[in-house]
Amino acid sequence: MDTRQLAAFCTVVERKSFSGAAERLGVTQPAVSLQIRSLEQRLGQRLLDRSGRRVEPTEAGLRLYRGAQRLLALEEQLVEDVAGEADGELRGTLAIGASSGPGGAVVPLLLCEFQRLHGALVVELHVSDTQAVVEAVARRELELGVVGAARRHRSVVFEPFFRDEVILVCPPGHRFAGRTISLDELREESLIAMQEGAGVRQVIEDELRRVGTRLRDFDLRLELGLQESVKSAVAAGYGVGFISRSAVEADLGAGALAAARVEGLDPVREISLVRAAGRAPTSRGSRRSPRGCRSRCASTSRSR
């Protein structure tokens, strides 16, 4: 997905007008309109309501806006981390790790766009559970990780990136669909969980401990390794499960899955960037080109 189209879309939503977005972006209003039209055609959805005095996002547009904000923020972080203050073309191999949540939706789109902008760079995305990604970053096998839980590890540092809601999903038409249910009701239903080591599972276990119960107190029938696996099992009617909202936005919008809330639980996880301790942070004030790492992203001077 073209991040320039997403940037134009987000700016229209924020400015509530095409002319305001064009002024902020430094382009013409027809150029902004073309970007939005192309995006709507690609997604097959009307994203903006143009009928009133102000432009407002549709329901589909709101879902896209939330995801696009995360995507554009991650792009900015990644460009800063890899390019730093270098003034040349990036070459070599960039190895990034991601847990199954961000690695299933947000990160791949970003890396595709990033590689298109840097054609001499080979990009590798390694998707695993949070703990495996953290360990690989600590061993400097990966340049950077994007994970769903900040686990203590003396060899890495975490940087908050964005917050992601964890929700209970069920098949449409299920008795939980669209409701706020009690913990007792949840105990009566077959529960599908992520495997141990997954960020989503850690968030749920922490929330359950907070209210005085444990995951093993529920009817846990399946433990699956990927959010996609949990999503497929729930959609097929084998139970209900907790999953990252960002991983199921499209399914909720299409009516393939339904969401429910659990009384007393507020499972929100911080998606974090993880890097080996001692590496330069991605903050604007201290950008540096990564060195001594497996990715070996070299910078060659441009001809002047």
What do these coordinates show?
Helix content is 40%, strand content 25%. The protein has 304 residues and is an alpha/beta fold. Among the domains are: 57 residues, Orthogonal Bundle (Arc Repressor Mutant, subunit A); 107 residues, 3-Layer(aba) Sandwich (D-Maltodextrin-Binding Protein, domain 2), CATH 3.40.190.10. Strands 3, 4, 5, 6, 7, 8, 9, 10, 11, 12 and 13 form an eleven-stranded mixed β-sheet that branches. It has a two-stranded antiparallel ribbon with strand order 1-2. 36% of the residues are buried.
Which key terms come to mind for this protein?
304 residues; 11 helices; 13 strands; alpha/beta; disordered C terminus; eleven-stranded mixed sheet; D-Maltodextrin-Binding Protein, domain 2; two-stranded antiparallel ribbon; Arc Repressor Mutant, subunit A
Q: Helical stretch count?
A: 11
Principal-axis shape equals globular
Percentage of residues in helical conformation: 40-55%
Q: How many beta strands in the DSSP annotation?
A: 13
Architecture of the domain at 163-269, CATH level 2?
3-Layer(aba) Sandwich
Low-confidence stretches: 281-304
How would a textbook summarize the main sheet?
A: 11 strands, mixed
CATH class of the domain at 163-269: Alpha Beta
Q: If you compute it from the alpha carbons, what radius of gyration comes out, rounded to the nearest whole angstrom? A: 21 Å
- The CATH topology of the domain at 163-269 turns out to be D-Maltodextrin-Binding Protein, domain 2
Look at the structure and name the CATH superfamily of the domain at 163-269: Periplasmic binding protein-like II
Ends apart, CA distance between termini: 32 Å
The averaged pLDDT comes out at 81
Indicate the proportion of strand residues: 25-35%
